[in-house]
Every structure is written in C-alpha cells, then in structure tokens.
C-alpha cells in the first residue's frame, strides 16, 4: 500500500511539474509574441492637463496598431502608471517598468520634474526613453538613451523674442512659475534675450499653488518702460496671471505665454482676459488654418479628428507629443526589425524627415529632439480661439 501511495505521489508531482513547465513555456511564448512598452504619465494631479491627453492618445493609437496587426506581427502591450505629477513616484514606477515589467522602451514623462527623476533609471538600464516634457535640459547635454518630442523652453524663448523684436520692443518684464518648467524656461529666456536686443527690466515669480498674482503684476506695472510681459509657466498659474493682468488694466501691454499652456483649456480658464495673448505652439492647434501645401496639414488634421472623435474633447498639443513619440518609436522598431533596446535606440537617433504634430523631426547623435524654430507657430487668441500671427507682425 505504501509503495502504491508513493507511486501516486510521484505521478502527482510529475504532473504538477509538467503543468508548471507548460505554463512557463506558454507564458514565455506569449511574452515573445508581444512588445512591452512602458509609460509613466501625470494622468491625475496638477499636471493632468498634460498627462490625460497623452494617456488617451497612447491607448487610442496602440489599439489602432494592434487592430492592424501590431508591429511586425507582434501586438503591443502598453504598461501605464500614473505618477500624479510626483517625481518620486515617477522614479519608483520607472524602476518597476525596468525590473518587473521588463519593457523594451519607455514613452512618457509628462513634466520636466518627473522626466528628470526617471532619466537615470533608463540610462542605467540602457532602455530608450522618449519624453513628452518641455525643458531643454532633458536633451542638453545629450544622453545616449534619452529623446523628447516637444519643442524646448529655449526654443519657446527664441520664438517669443523673435516676435518681440519684430514689434520693435526692447524692454520686457517676466513673471515666472517656480515649478521645474517655469524655472528652466526663465533661465533660458534670460540667456537668449540679449541676442534679440531685449533687456529684462523687471522680474517676479509665483508658486504652483498661488491663486492670485496681483501683487507681483502691480510691481511690473509700476516698473518704468515695460513694453511687453513674458510668462514662463504651465498649469493654472498662467491663466491666473492672464486674468489678474486684465483686472489691473494692463491689457494694452502685450502678454506672451509659453507653449506650456498650448491647449483650449487655457483659453477657457483665462476667459475673455486671454484675448490678444500670444504664445508659440505646434501647428496642431491651428490645423484647419494651415495652408493646404503645409507638409504637416495632413498629419495634424487626421490626429485632431481621430482624437476629438474618440474622446469628445478638444485636441491639445500635449496629446500630439504622445502621438509623435509613439510613432517615432514604432517606426524605429520597424526599421531595426527588432525590439532589442540598443538597436531601437540607434534607429530612433536616425529618425529623418518624420512629419509629426510638433514639426518635421530629423535627429542625430548630437540632437535628440530634431526640431528647429520653424516647427513653432506664433499664435494669438482672437474671439476665444487660436489664430496664426503673420511673421512680420
């Protein structure tokens, strides 16, 4: 009887081992048939106006890609975490994507702060990381595995001062947010202003939770000779600045915002006070106003229609950055005919003439953005909507 029991136990153990082995093989085969991509976004929290459209865009286009057969016959498995705008959470999620989820590439990073926190993780793991955040410090100096899709804060300063120079203004005041993006853009504007013959004659700042900037703007209003005001910042701060600006009767002095508020929600938050505000932004916001021969027209109108039809929400440039990042990555994997992170990294760096929502992208070993100043349009709010500013006005 004991011998019989031992035989049964041996059979049971053998069957269990076989089942586990089969499950392991099946799991491995399943993993091999999918491409795991990671994303850490600020879907909730103070930067949700960035992360939410990015999240919706990635999921929407991954579904479309998978429905069309995936990439080289493999379906994309997108692993998304919400950092709520918290840099520490972002770094934790980045580590999880590398160590637990075993992703082959990362597309995300809604803010400069969260992106900078994640960079060391992906650089050490040698996994390509395409960020959707704004600051030039993300790709300058160049890091081997880090790329980004949005125009930089330095480019925004250059575009703004280019327009200020065209209007023959030379004395400018700045009111900047103290968040990562606001601080970085402020520093860039201070650096590039002299090249456009512009002097910064007054400066003020505000915190991310400030709900009234009247005191700072009153000081700017009292400063002698101010011909225009520039507001580096993102989130609700710039809308509050814009409303306070109008309340103080400062609207006759041109106000410039950054590309950090390039969405319809800024106009909605600022209300009638937004009238006349100028900012540099991607062509996506004026898709229907582009001439038919514009190389971006087809891409931006198709993305705008797809996004708005699917989400029932107005398009923003932030979702466009996600579309560009995902498409650049997928095309790199197709060219590499591989999902090996190093091979994919090399192909991202070779991206040439890619027509995206942010502009025409040509990267190189010394340029992990691939956009020039022509990728920016200068926009002005008129009648509650975006309009294109002509180059000489």
TrEMBL record:
Keywords: Amino-acid transport, Signal, Transport. CDD domains: PBP1_ABC_RPA1789-like. Residues 1-31 form the signal peptide. Gene3D superfamilies: 3.40.50.2300. Residues 34-369 form the Leucine-binding protein domain. InterPro entries: BCAA_transport, Leu-bd, Leu_Ile_Val-bd, Peripla_BP_I. The keyword Repressor does not apply. Transmembrane segments: none annotated. It holds the Pfam family Peripla_BP_6. The keyword Metal-binding does not apply. Belongs to the leucine-binding protein family. This is Amino acid/amide ABC transporter substrate-binding protein (HAAT family).
């Amino acid at each position: 009887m004991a011998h019989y029991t031992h035989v049964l136990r041996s059979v049971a153990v053998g069957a269990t081992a076989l089942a586990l082995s089969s499950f392991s093989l099946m799991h491995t085969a399943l993993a091999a048939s999918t491409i795991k991509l990671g994303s850490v976004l600020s879907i909730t929290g103070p930067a949700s106006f960035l992360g939410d459209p990015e999240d919706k865009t990635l999921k929407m286009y991954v579904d479309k890609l998978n429905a069309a057969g995936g990439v080289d016959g493999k379906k994309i498995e997108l692993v998304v975490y919400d950092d709520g705008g918290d840099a520490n959470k972002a770094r934790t999620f980045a580590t999880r994507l590398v160590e637990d989820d075993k992703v082959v590439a990362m597309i995300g990073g809604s803010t400069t702060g969260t992106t900078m926190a994640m960079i060391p993780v992906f650089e050490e793991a040698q996994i390509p990381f395409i960020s959707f955040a704004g600051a030039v410090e993300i790709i300058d100096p160049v890091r081997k595995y880090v790329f980004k899709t949005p125009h930089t804060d330095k480019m925004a300063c250059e575009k703004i001062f280019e327009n200020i120079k065209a209007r023959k203004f030379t004395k400018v005041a700045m009111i900047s947010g103290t968040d990562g993006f606001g601080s970085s853009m402020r520093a860039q504007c201070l650096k590039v202003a002299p090249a456009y013959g512009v002097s910064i004659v007054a400066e003020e700042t505000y915190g991310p939770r400030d709900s009234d900037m009247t005191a700072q703007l009153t000081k700017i209003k009292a400063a002698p000779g101010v011909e225009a005001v520039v507001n580096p910042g993102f989130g609700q701060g710039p809308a509050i600045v814009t409303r306070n600006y109008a309340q103080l009767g400062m609207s006759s002095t041109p106000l410039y915002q950054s590309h950090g508020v390039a969405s319809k929600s800024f106009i909605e938050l600022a209300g009638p006070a937004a009238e006349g505000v100028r900012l540099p932004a991607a062509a996506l916001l004026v898709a229907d106003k582009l001439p038919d021969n514009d190389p971006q027209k087809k891409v931006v109108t198709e993305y705008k229609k797809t996004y708005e039809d699917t989400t029932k929400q107005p398009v923003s440039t932030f979702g466009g950055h996600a579309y560009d990042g995902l498409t650049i990555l997928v095309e790199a994997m197709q060219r590499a005919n591989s999902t090996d992170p190093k091979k994919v990294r090399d192909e991202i760096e070779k991206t040439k003439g890619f027509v995206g929502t942010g502009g025409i992208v040509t990267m190189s070993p010394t340029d992990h953005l691939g956009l020039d100043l022509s990728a920016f349009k200068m926009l002005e709010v008129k009648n509650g909507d975006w309009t294109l500013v002509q180059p000489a006005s």
